[in-house]
C-alpha cells in the first residue's frame, strides 16, 4: 500500500484537530468560488460545479491476467495510438495492457495483451528466488514497490518518431513480513538504514518488518521509452529506468543514520507544458511524536506538496529543479537542483516551497495533501488539479478529522493554485474511501492531462477497485 503512516500522521497533526462548524453541500449543481492566480496577477473566477454522477460509481475494469489481485491500486494512465489504448496499470509493480475500448464504455472489457513494464526488486514476478541479502545488493529505491503513477508523451529528437514516453513512479523501500508474489522469501527489512531508533511500537530499523511502524521510505523516479512501432508505443517492457529524480528536502535519515527524518517524496503526477515536464509530489516529513523532529519541519525545507520541472528532452537525474520561493520574496523560480550530487540517504535535498500553505502555521509543512494530479483545459490558459487530502483543517473548516476528502483547484501557471473546490467529501478512512489517488480522464477516455472544462471524469481507487465521478466546471 502507498498510504501507510496514518498513525504517525495523526501524531504529527494533533495540533490541527480543533473542531469547526461545517455546511454540507447538496444537489448536483453548486456555485463555488475559486481563485485563479497568475504569476504576476490574480483574478477571481466563479465556477459552477456540475456533478453528472453525484457520488463515485464502480468502474468496469478487467483483471490483469498473471498479475497479483491487488495490482489495481493506481488509476490507469492512458496513451492512445490510433484506436488502441495502452493502459498503464500499477500497484506495487506496473503493467502495460492493450485494449480497444474506452474506460466508460458499456459491455465487458478485456485486454488483448498485458506485460510487466516496471517492477520492484522484491515481489517482482519475473525475479524468481530472492533473499534479503540478495535484495540488499540491488537498487534500494525500488526495493518493495515500483508503481507507475503517470505516463506522458514528449518531443524527443533522439526517438525515430520524434516522440518518447516519460513515466514517473512511486517507489518504496520498507519492512515487509513476507513478499506478496514471486519467488522471494521473507522477511525483508528496509535497506535505507537499519540503525534508526525513532520508530513506533518498540521497533528499530534492525527489527522492523511492518511498514506501519515507520520502516518506510518513498522515492520518485523516472523512466522513458521511445514512442515507436518497435516498442509497440510503450508496450515493450524495455524501459530505460533512470532512478530517483528528486530527494526529500531534509534527507531520509540523520547524519549518523540513527534517526528517520522523512518518509520521502511520494505519489508523483506529471504533466507536459511547453518545453518542460512538471512533476508534483508530496514531500513527507517524519516524527514519532516524541523525538522533537516536528520542530525541524520549518522554513526552506519544510514538507508539503511540491513541484519540480525539467527542460525537455532532458529528463534524466540532474535535469530536474525544484520550485523555491525564498522567505520574504514575492516570486520563486526553478533553480534548486532536485537531486543532490553524490549524496547519501542523510544528504539534504532541495530547498523547495510547498505550493499549498498551512494556514494554521505557514512556516510549517502542510501534510493534508496526499496526491495532486493535473490536467490542462483544452483551448484555455487554465489548469485543473484534483487533490486527495486527509482533513486536518489546515486550509479550511474541519469537517472530519483525519478522514479523506477530494477537491478541485485551478491555476494559470501551475504554481499558484486556487482554494479548494469541494468535489467529494467521503470522510472515510483510506481503505474505505472510493477516490484514492484520483486523476483526470477526459470524456473520450483518451487522456489524463487534457480535458474539456465542462465535461471530464475523476477516477480513483478503493483498494482494489476503480471508481469514477463524471463532473464539469463552468466559469461564470
Task: Tell me what you see in this structure.
Strands 1, 2, 3, 21, 23 and 24 form a six-stranded antiparallel beta sheet that branches. Strands 12-13-14-15-16 form a five-stranded antiparallel beta sheet, with no helix packed on it. The chain has a five-stranded mixed beta sheet with strand order 20-19-18-17-22, with no helix packed on it. It has 476 residues and is mostly beta strands. The protein is globular. The longest helix is centred in the first third of the chain and has 7 residues. The N terminus is likely disordered. It has one domain.
Low-confidence runs of at least 5 consecutive residues: 2-43
Report the end-to-end length measured between terminal Cα atoms.
40 Å
Task: Give the total of domains.
Answer: 1
What is the β-strand count? 24
Helix content: under 10%
- Rg, alpha carbons: 21 Å
Mean pLDDT: 88
The class by helix and strand makeup works out as mainly beta
Q: Could you tell me the strand content as a percent range?
A: 35-45%
Count of DSSP-assigned helices: 2
